[in-house]
Amino acid sequence: MTWLESLVSRALNDPYLSDLTRKLELKYAYIFLYQRDDIDLTDKEFNDVLRFADILSRSNEAVGRNKAYKIISLLYDSYKDDPQYQYLANSILTKLGNFASLNIAVKNNMDVDTVESMLEKEIKKIYQKVPYSDYVFTDPQYRLFEAMKDSNHFSFSGPTSFGKSFIMDAFIQYIINEKHGGENIVILVPTRALINQVTARLKKSINRERYRVLAHPIVPAIYKDRGLKYVFVFTPERLISYLGEKENPVINYMFVDEAQKIIAEKDSRAPLYYHAILLAERKSIKLYFASPNIPNADIFLQLFEKSLDEKMVIKESPVAQNRFYIDFVKHEGRMFTETGDDIIFKDLGKKEERYATKMLVKLGHNCKNIIYCNTVADTIDFARGFSSQLPDKQDERINSLIELIKTYIHRDYFLIDCLQKGVAFHFGRLPQRIRERIEKLFEEKVIDYIFCTSTLLEGVNLPAKNIFIFSNAIGNTKFSDIDFWNLAGRAGRLSKELSGNIICVRLEDKRNRWDNPTKDLRVVRTREIDAVHPLVIKGQKNFYKNLEKSLEFKDFTKTNYSNSEKEVWDHYANIVFTHQATKTDSILMSNFLKKNENGKRILDKIERDNHIPTYIMEQCSNIKIAYQNDIWNSVKEGEKAFPNEVNVDTCYEVLEKMYNFYNWGDEESKGRKPMVRQKSRLHYFAVLMYTWMKSTPLNMMITNVINYYKRKGEIWDQNGYIPFDSHNKVHINMVINDLISDIDNILRFKIKNYILNFYLIVAEKNGKKAAGPNWAEYLEYGTMDKDTIELQNIGLPRHLAVLIKNEYMEYLMFEDEALVEINMEELLSHIDDEKYKEELTELKEILE
After folding, report:
1. Which residues form a coiled coil (predicted)?
2. Which of 19, 97, 211, 273 could form a disulfide with 262 if both were Cys (CB 3.0 to 4.6 A apart)?
């Protein structure tokens, strides 16, 4: 141990530092909780704690460097103008390489530089400069970037605020320039909700003319034969679709964002993620995994059988976080400290009139606040209840969004009431167009409070000063350590503030609302995150035995399983057989055979009876092979897959055919929100499917479905049917939220997958021409019009594609139904900027 390391070790273990840190935290808590700064440090204490921070900043380990940064952040509110504070903050933050925080702490004050700090600053600005950018890496970002440059695959994890997207963007820029624009790249994201955000970000950061950023698994004709290269932003299903087309350009690199989704035990999409990445790995694509807070980041390399050496776990955070708990059941509050001894506040958590509103207003005044509520119903209820007690907020940007919601969705949508008070809610069922506008207004501090569900855990980049956590669960399942810190880690915005606040709030004695504080708060207090052990690798909980049960259509090993567990077992079982049919070596396959002595016999029998080509199995990995073979055997010579004519009746006929062939009565009728609780539900989906495929605008679809429920006379509400009242705003909002969710999760995902599978089987057996139109394409794009599909393939959302198709076709040139040219200047200049003001702004952001 060097003399400096010894000094750091002594400082970390010095009781005096613990006392000083605790006093600083108490001082900060009084400022935050009570808006009082009446706990003073003596001159000696102030100088001593800064000296401690200076020593700790020289450490090579994250624990010392994090504590040095924490001290600087705790002192900031009271001492930011103090010359001694600025002098040492400058030195400490320079040593940490945290230039974003340095600009806040000392505001580029040149008077605080010493020769040593000035020299170190200039050296880091040169060596740690982000390539092809004006930004500078922090020390751990720089170490990671340099390690990635020398690798063929890599896995890293770090705090949520570490800047994983920033690193990936910088590395992509490096690849593009160092490889002279010769590589195609994919960024894999977990959901469609992230595609637009990542695409927009990349379009701003990639400045090479030869590159295009695309989000659909098709290279449009307008870009072909022009020597272009591509950065694709795909979900797993879009990646599978892309890799299934042999004519598509070769992919060289793939970055897997939010990689923890691959191994999430209770996420029914995890097998799809695994399957997609394994298909990419088989094509020798270089894989890079990014995940938040996972202590054993090499697990992803192990899962895909890569060398375990090329990994990095970053524990150093560029933003500090202060942790609080307010309990309105036991009427107390506490701050979780760096020393582990809680600071108790007996006067917090008192129930009085409008207590939740008063807390949010007091603690969230003049800063950005995210309030996590878990369920959509709770999110809307809390947002409405809170906003109803606030004064109206006058802002033209809010008024503009309100008018858009009235025309694009419905005049009775509850979001309008909230926005009038500077409040919003945010969840997956919001249309992408509206969600993006909310995020932008929140970023610009026009909206002060956002109530949200776990959509933020999907990777949506939306940091805030304060994160209030009203529930410690996702759905019915309590947070994992990773889930909690992925959400809570968004407290504090790098380059905007030095620290953020995490406030866990128990509002009532209710399940999954911090109902077991001793156990539930462990992860908040200790900040420890357990290593992850994927089912595919470890096979715990009879995982492989249940795959065998699925393949044999036998009862699973547990009786009370969730629908998501069943989906996971069934999907992985399908993938196991696909690996058998394609002779793919994988950990999944080898562990299945090791754990099940009859495994090989079962797979061999299925293979002997199988007629489905491997490319169809790979495209449709979530559909049981037995159903596919039944369809193969029943398809008659010359049979069409689907009718040419599309109306509500033909949609119902197709849905009924899918219901019978794929056994929806058993496969899709279980769980809390099944696709078809009863077969009569197909009538609703027939209406939805028809209007969606006919390019009907969202507001008209909502009107159509409201009329459907008026005719039906009842609507499902949580536990049963209730009479439907078209004048009841609650009922209208139920229809709107369910419809938007059903478009995304049912039409464009579940039903589309069944439709695609059926089409591929018929086309394989009878030929594409005989099979007729591919309705899966209509469901994906929300239109039957080829021109509108072409416009979406170049990156336009459905509503803009429909608008241009209907009113501005003269500025487009097509050859053989393929878009080959857009007269951009003429198109933008001729769009009516009064009638289509919002649309024109969106179009310019996408195309220019």
Report:
1. none
2. 273
**Across-strand partners of 229?**
211
Question: What whole-number distance in Å separates Cα of residue 453 and Cα of residue 428?
Answer: 8
d(CA 482, CA 492): 18
Helix, strand counts (H, E) of the chain? 40, 21
Closest C-alpha to 178, from 281, 284, 253 = 253
Please give the single-letter amino acid code of residue 593.
L
Q: What percentage of the chain has pLDDT greater than the value 70?
A: 100
d(CA 267, CA 483): 12
CA 729 to chain centroid: 30
| CATH number for domain 139-313, candidates 3.40.190.10, 3.40.50.300, 3.90.650.10, 3.40.50.2300 | 3.40.50.300
- Report helix, strand or coil for 181: coil
Check if the beta carbon of residue 446 is closer than 8 Å to that of residue 422: yes
Query: Angle, to 10 degrees, between the axis of helix 355-363 and the axis of helix 376-387?
Result: 80
DSSP 8-state secondary structure symbol assigned to residue 42: P
Contact present, 358 and 336 (Cβ < 8 Å): no
List pLDDT tens digits, range 560-596.
999 999 999 999 999 999 999 999 999 999 999 999 9
Q: Domain limits of the chain?
A: 3-127, 139-313, 325-526, 535-628, 648-780, 785-847
Report residue 848's pLDDT band, with 50, 70 and 90 as the boundaries.
low
Which CATH architecture fits 325-526?
3-Layer(aba) Sandwich (3.40)
Check residue 720 and give its pLDDT.
86
**Closest to 778 (Cα-Cα) out of 768, 770, 769, 789:** 789
Give the integer Cα–Cα distance in Å for 415 and 427: 12
Residue 472's nearest CA partner among 448, 427, 503 is 503
| Amino acid letter for position 401 | L
Rg value, the chain, Cα: 28
How many angstroms separate the Cα of 798 from the Cα of each of 239, 753, 777? 20, 20, 13
Read off the pLDDT of residues 379-436 as tens digits, 9 standing for 90 and up.
999 999 999 999 999 999 999 999 999 999 999 999 999 999 999 999 988 999 999 9
Which residues neighbour 303 within 8 Å (Cβ) at sequence distance 6 or greater? 262, 263, 274, 534, 536, 537, 587
**Which two tokens mark 671?**
């769980």
Question: Is-contact 456 485, C-beta < 8 A?
Answer: no
The burial class, CB within 10 Å (0-12 / 13-18 / 19+), for 689 is buried
Q: Are 742 and 752 in contact (CB under 8 A)?
A: no
Collect all residues with Cβ–Cβ distance below 8 Å to 654 and sequence separation of at least 6. Answer: 642, 643, 755, 775
- Single out the residue of 205, 201, 145, 254 nearest to residue 461, CA to CA: 201
Residue 717: beta bridge partners? 720
Residue-wise pLDDT for 595-610, tens only, equals 999 999 999 999 999 9
- The stretch 700-728 carries a mean pLDDT of 93
pLDDT at 462: 87
What is the structure's pLDDT at 527?
94
Asked if residues 272 and 620 have their Cβ atoms less than 8 Å apart, the reply is: no
Q: What is the pLDDT of residues 155-211, one digit of tens each?
A: 999 999 998 999 999 999 999 999 888 999 999 999 888 898 899 999 988 878 899
Q: For the chain, what's the residue count?
A: 848
Four-point Cα dihedral 391, 396, 401, 403, nearest 10: 90
Q: Nearest to residue 360, comparing CAs of 333, 382, 331?
A: 382
Prediction pTM value = 0.95
Q: Is 325-526 the same fold as 139-313?
A: yes
Asked whether the beta carbons of 300 and 256 are under 8 A apart, the reply is yes
Reading the block at residue 458, the tokens are: 């999907």
pLDDT digits (tens, 9 = 90+) for 740-796: 999 999 999 999 999 999 999 999 999 999 999 999 999 999 999 999 999 999 999
